[in-house]
Specification:
Blueprint (H helix, E strand, L loop, with lengths): L4 H8 L6 H4 L2 H4 L10 H22 L9 H9 L3 H8 L10 H19 L4 E5 L8 E6 L2 E5 L1 H9 L7 H13 L9 E2 L13 H11 L13 H6 L6 E5 L4 E2 L1 E8 L2 E8 L2 E9 L7 E5 L2 E8 L2 E8 L4
Antiparallel strand pairs: 1-2, 2-3, 4-6, 5-7, 7-8, 8-9, 10-11, 11-12
Length: about 325
């Protein structure tokens, strides 16, 4: 039987919650447990993160180099296998503080929170909850204000029925919203309009098109799809949109419908940056536009319009 996040929580963590919290989990997850901003409580979270670092290589059976960087969260995520989880589950009595899974998760949640705070450019801080491992990170970014429930990220990443990894959640909720897009050099004014390539979308056609209409972008970059791969996308047409804050176009979005959906490719001044694919039906054509600092994409799926919103620098 697949192991769910709910089963992990009820077996290994819930018995360790105070009785009043067990009776009202929703309230406990929203109430500030450190209204006086006692630094000693925050120090416990810092200690928990350091304990996790000290034990990580032994716990994970490999060297993961936990240095409080974003990259270290990705290395950690790759080491969280079902085999490791199952070994931790049976090491020490379930539902007690001696259980290894309990200790890995509560200390690991403190470590991931510390990684978020490690980047001084981020507007983030701990919001303490009771028990302490339920504490959340409050993050302010161009995407808005968010409370990041890292303990729950861990439980979901260890479950059999959840496809998202710890790294996936960290990238989506931390790295993408706080990525310093405004530091990118300008390519061209946003008001410049590049004509659509209406047919015959090939690598050589694209190269000549950009050279004619956006000469400031001198290179597609080493990671841009090869001519063969680009041809395999089967794009019916290709359109262009300069993106950025204010009047400055700091990225070029290229988008077009292919087999099964909409392809999107972002380029900055140095070339290829990232790509994405949104499943969509072939009719009607997708709509891509900007609203403030967001990219709004409307496609048809199961004969109904579906709206996708993301920051202008992509998912």
């Amino acid at each position: 039987m697949p192991i769910t996040a709910e089963a992990l929580f009820r077996t290994h963590f819930l018995p360790l919650y105070p009785p009043d919290v067990q009776g009202d989990l929703a309230r406990a997850r929203t109430v500030d447990a450190n209204p006086g901003k006692n630094p000693a409580i925050l120090a416990h979270l810092e200690d928990a993160a350091r304990i996790f670092v000290a034990r990580a290589d032994t716990l994970l059976g490999r060297e993961v180099h936990l240095d409080f960087t974003d990259a270290s969260v990705h290395r950690l995520s790759a080491a969280l296998t079902p085999e490791r989880r199952d070994a931790w589950r049976v090491a020490g009595e379930a539902g007690t503080a001696e259980n290894e899974l309990f200790n890995v998760v509560v200390h690991g949640a403190a470590y991931v929170g510390a990684c978020i705070l490690h980047d001084s450019r981020r507007q983030a801080h701990w919001a303490v909850r009771r028990p302490l491992w339920e504490s959340v990170i409050e993050l302010v970014s161009p995407a808005g204000e968010a409370q990041l429930a890292i303990f729950q990220w861990w439980l979901k990443s260890l479950a059999d029925d959840d496809a998202g990894t710890l790294a996936d959640r960290y990238r989506t909720h931390v790295e993408v919203p706080t990525w310093p897009a405004t530091s990118l050099p300008s390519i061209a004014p946003k008001e410049r309009r590049l004509p659509r390539i209406a047919k015959g979308v090939r690598y050589d056609v694209l190269y000549k098109h950009l050279k004619a209409h956006l000469p400031e972008l001198r290179d597609l970059g080493k990671d841009f799809p090869s001519a063969e791969r680009f041809s395999e996308l089967g794009l019916r047409w290709l359109d262009f949109l300069l993106l950025g804050e204010g009047d400055e176009g700091r990225m070029l979005l290229m988008y077009g419908p292919g087999e099964g959906g909409l392809h999107l490719i972002w380029l900055d001044r140095s070339g290829f940056h990232k790509s994405s694919f949104i499943p969509a039906e072939s009719f009607p054509d997708p709509v891509v536009k900007t609203e403030d600092d967001q990219l709004v994409i409307v496609v048809s799926w199961e004969k109904k319009p579906v709206v996708h919103r993301m920051l202008w620098w992509g998912p």
